Amino acid sequence: MIKVIAIGDVHAEWGRMWAALRSAYAVDADYAPTQPVRDGRYQVILLGDLAHPKSAHEYSLISGFDPFDFSDPAHLAAAARAQVRELRRLKRFADAAAGNVQIVLGNHDDAVLYRHHQLGTGYGVQHNEFDPHYGGILLPDDLRAWFAGFAREIRLGDTQFAHAGPASSMAYFDDFFYGDSDTKTWWREKPGMVQDYGFAFGVYGHTVMPHGVYIDPLNRFAMIDALDRREYLELIFQGDFGGKPTYNVISF
């Protein structure tokens, strides 16, 4: 039996992410993977969007500047440095986990890495801290190499873990992705997609779930962008990852 701890979009909410991992007994007090993670009985999957706080308030908290000015290079550098520090902590945790911590590439991670799109989350929030063209700084080379190795999807048997949805086009963050309303609405308007693609179960992020983790048992998927609600998904697989896993929504 293998337990998978699946956590939705992080968006620099490091305190909540580590609290979720501590709740799952996946990380110890020194930010090292616990024995069940190191030996593979527990596996951790993060569904991406590690970077870019969601709100101006969160930018103020991590940078120390209040109000936060999205056009001020000093503010942007402070926000970037705070994220770099925590990203390196997470990388050390993942590197020590013997392959049992996996991370899916989110569209915000892709934007940090390739800088093809300037992203924002509304209300004046612009994610410029890792883009020198807008006054930010480049993500350091070691973290760029790490981001470049993130998976577009993870499959455990017939269960898919992906950032935005079950279609392969939802894992490539180009103009089509940003122009396609399905990337945000498929789970509500086309919920049969997971079974159409042949998966026994699917786990996805990208779209904020304001009421916590959303489970569609009939169509066999979970939407787990719910770290703001202090929730993550725990899945139990048999050793061969066959069939549909059992699952529980965990509050922490």
UniProtKB/TrEMBL annotation:
Signal peptide: none annotated. Pfam families: Metallophos. InterPro entries: Calcineurin-like_PHP, Metallo-depent_PP-like. It comes from the Bacteria. GO terms for molecular function: hydrolase activity. Residues 2-189 form the Calcineurin-like phosphoesterase domain. This is Calcineurin-like phosphoesterase domain-containing protein.
